[in-house]
Fold this protein.
Amino acid sequence: MTISDDALRAAQAVNAERLWGRLMRMAEFGARPDGGVDRPCLSAEDQNARAELIGWAEARGYQVSVDRAANLFIRRAGRRDGPAILTGSHMDSQPKGGRFDGIGGVLGGLEALDAISEAGLETDRAIEVVAFTNEEGGRFSPGCTGSMSWSGARDPASFDDLEDENGARYADALNETLSKAPELATRPLGDAPAAYVELHIEQGPVLEEKALQIAAVTGIQGVRWYDVEITGDTAHAGTTPLALRRDAVQAMHRAIAALNALMADPDDVVRFTVGRIEVEPNSPNAVADKARFTIDFRHPDRAVLEQRGNAVEEAVRKAAEPCRAEVRPSLFSDPTHFPEPIVAIIEQAARDLDFSVMRLPSGAFHDALFASQICPTAMIFVPSRNGLSHHPDEYTAPEHMAAGTQVLAATLVDLANGNATV
Amino acid sequence: MTISDDALRAAQAVNAERLWGRLMRMAEFGARPDGGVDRPCLSAEDQNARAELIGWAEARGYQVSVDRAANLFIRRAGRRDGPAILTGSHMDSQPKGGRFDGIGGVLGGLEALDAISEAGLETDRAIEVVAFTNEEGGRFSPGCTGSMSWSGARDPASFDDLEDENGARYADALNETLSKAPELATRPLGDAPAAYVELHIEQGPVLEEKALQIAAVTGIQGVRWYDVEITGDTAHAGTTPLALRRDAVQAMHRAIAALNALMADPDDVVRFTVGRIEVEPNSPNAVADKARFTIDFRHPDRAVLEQRGNAVEEAVRKAAEPCRAEVRPSLFSDPTHFPEPIVAIIEQAARDLDFSVMRLPSGAFHDALFASQICPTAMIFVPSRNGLSHHPDEYTAPEHMAAGTQVLAATLVDLANGNATV
């Protein structure tokens, strides 16, 4: 056993029923008829969910504050001043989202604070829970505007003119949301914590597949996105011999075959997805003159991202001939590696609490990506049923949510008390 | 020379400039800014085009009548009563259509009547020009409702409740169009002519490719359509290992590969087209759980249509595994073979008029498909530049339109006078 007695007591004080009750209560804000959640950032549903969270926090006497990106902070004071240990995630959802993505990390964080309180513990450093604004990018794209503003990754003003599909401005929605809770203390952006630990559902099938309870997340894999547009000639499907066609759909077919070959990986670590396809004129009896598709390519190793990613354009162009192919890179995000010490702390805490645990890189983005740029950061994953997320059927069992929260509470206590150093 | 002197005189009287002028005038009804035509059937543009045509016909003293399917008939009387020789086509266009498809056959027919008149000829049988309603199916689907109603292929009332994308009913649009020309004589449906000859643009590249002027069309190839729906599981593109996915886009990719193999034809006679693709959720970072696509498969030989068409479902299902594939046949139209005598008449008329000519099956549907069910039928094709049709850039040169009309005029005269028998 390497975790402290205090950490163990905090973990044992986690109240699984209270946590589950709060998750189900929050799922009412933006509830969908199919059991999922549609809670766009800075919407009325988001504002109501924030009010509920603030109520829970203030009832326990935690100090609540907000920064100009509308990131919400709940602070449980420590014995001394100085940077806090931060946990949290986000409260917004995808339009067809579920009840756990993001909000699980916020409510797990709040439950950890309550458990620490109920265990009668004091900590050296303060522990804070953050709810970042707009992680999903479902209403205002890109996502992670809250954590990017907070971490300094981007100038917050650069997001002001983002518009949602109804033409509402991001800056206006932000101000409206801030005006709903004028009593809150304000805090500056860029106030770096001593460490950041984010609890999140895995959003993939690995933990379930291996029947494990916890993942200590080693980093966030790198991502390259491309938009491909293939141009051929439209023609009548009945009249034009195949040899005389420049069929954009068939060119896309050849390009995907070439990409499948390029991305082949016996170890199944490469993530390669064609998720979006659009065809014009998209008529059953017309040969297509346009086919557009997206490439999402991810890998934890930068060298692989570079080698294979740099080969995408030529592979597509060559395969698409005699059609013309344009390949536009739209995103290149380097792999992030969380520091070994903080990953090890989480892994050890899980073992000491008798949970089965593995190390796993995150396939998805998280606010932790931006936190990791300003402080030691890691994440805790809990299993997603059928690997589903961004889906109304997204589900993580109460015992898995509680287990992740226990690991989180123990980790936060040891970090806050300097028993574990990063 | 086997065509009659009268037929030759009629052909020589064709006025290429008048024909071109009328084509360009008609292109104003529903003109698109890109030079194409958008003239939905039974629309205001169609009604105005009909009024223009009626004006031209009545100015020459031809008798104009209409049936309850709003098919418009222009009759140049013959020496005796009885079934006429019919020519014509349709006046409606695709939404992004051109200036020649359909209307070329109607105005070519009218020009043939005028040429016969100006050559001072009488014919035994009457010669009629028909403008069939809704060949394209662009506004009310299916197409060919006019020629199907006329030929008895379908009960005209069965089309009454078709709706366009704005919810307008076919029967209402039909009645509104009929009410615009209340003075017209009415005629019954199903009045079979002695023969039907349709002039049309090729809508394919073969004549241009071979630098020929005329095709004597041997029939209309058979068509089988299928709607395929593949169902997999959606998943996060970043988190889900490829081996654990049931990716509907990749299953579609394998299905198209299997279909390409099934449809391979060294003679390049098979027409196989995937023209329409839809993916859900169609998001760059989500593995697709639905992929829908259409199959358009055509061949002049029924045995080939049966053998390969019957193999489509199993090929798709097998290739799509572990995803589920539903394959729904949505159309099966037998190949139509025009009678040899009438094809031979057209071919000979072209030769006698010193035009280069070949025989060619039609890859596309035409009103002639339904005419052929009630009378000897054939078609005359003229070249399409770049094989384009259903496209604003659709183009057939004035000399090609005139050549086709000369062959048509000669053929009509000899058919009407019994110099050529079918």
Observations:
- The longest strand of chain A covers residues 222-231.
- Chain A has two domains: 5-221+335-416, 222-333.
- Chain A has a mean pLDDT of 96.
